[in-house]
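Researcher: Last one for today. Full complex below.
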Amino acid sequence: MCGIDRGNILKQMINAVFILIFWPLNLLAQGSAVTSVEPGVQIWNELKGEKLEALRLRGDAARGEEAFVVCQGCHKQGATGSASGVYPRLAGQHATVLIEQMADIRSGKRMNQKMAPFADEHVLTIQEITDIAAYLQALPIPPNIGTGPGDALARGNELYAKDCATCHGKSGEGKADKFFPLVAGQHFKYLLREVRFIRDGQRGNANPDMVIVIKGYRDEDLEAVADYMSRLVAP
Amino acid sequence: MRRYGLWVRAAALLGILLSGPALSGDAEKAKNIVTEVCSACHGMDGNSTVPTFPKLAGRHPEYLVRELKQFVSGYRKSEIMTPIATALDPDDFKALGEYFGAQKPSSNQVTDQAAAAIGRKLYLDGDEQKGLPSCAGCHSSDGVGRSRFPRLAGQHKEYLIEQMYNFRNDVRNYGAARFMREVTKRMSDDEIKSVAEFLSGL
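Model: Here's the assembly. Have a good evening.
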């Protein structure tokens, strides 16, 4: 009995060490795949600096809950955000995406003057960024999300299936290892603001591939697809 | 000594070790320090009567220890508190924090109900358009705070206003106080007064 337990513990320890060593390498490999673009072209989501440091750390959800207290003043308890769209829902978002966005806001790459001073190095350590990401990823996605007018959902569905589903997933679940965010059940007004920023070059850290895809979108197209996404339910 | 068995002696020794530094002796010592040093300004029960001196009653012990350390290190600047905190033995900070934390905090009379109502809304909801976070996010909706964030409920409004200006004017600018610097920069003078009015009455 004791021997089996020890064997199991040993196995788990070996596994843990393997994951610790190879998970960051894995990320790096994916990162280089994503960032292999022509020289001179802006590199999307380059894994370096604080972002890489945070991705390499192990997140602790319990510590993250305590660290997240400073974020609650805007993102609310339970990270529900607000239906007004000013603050996004963060509950259930992929940890990789959260780390990417926090690091980009800190470095100024993602242009967000409202949040930047509240997330700088005086307020949050890099470890806390990783802990917060671990905490938020594990939170249940709340109901009562702000949705749009609902008058162009067929158009939204059509656009989403054609242009968005490949990266953000059929149900809007995103892809954690590619840093593609979960969009299902995000507040409509927040989605609309951000897709506009991305189309118009005001987000700062937008994926250039996405900018190309939605460049020709009219405002009503963006509205239709944002409304559709806000109503998706992630599996 | 022979009358007590080995186990009794071992248990007694273990008891002393486990009870740690916060023995009743420390509490007694803390009370003496409060009597001689702190009470003149902060009151024996931590409810100061002079509005520019903060109430310490019911504040989280960890928070009080942290601020005492910040006065000593000079991060938190105060002509009054820096020499006093420096003269204290840092080993007594914990017991002092626990002494004041255990005192019952008093409240104040709200003098401007209209301002308090505006302050209440700002405190609980912030202002999304300005990017002003709600204060309740950190200090909790009833203003009792947490170990990292001070209790604000029932504090003197004069003291609260002074501290908010200290954050805004970079007087209190160490570490996470930078968060409060940004918060207070996004508040108008009237909003600062209103929030202070609301909190003092809690």
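The two ends of chain B are 56 Å apart (CA to CA). DSSP finds ten helices and no strands in chain B.
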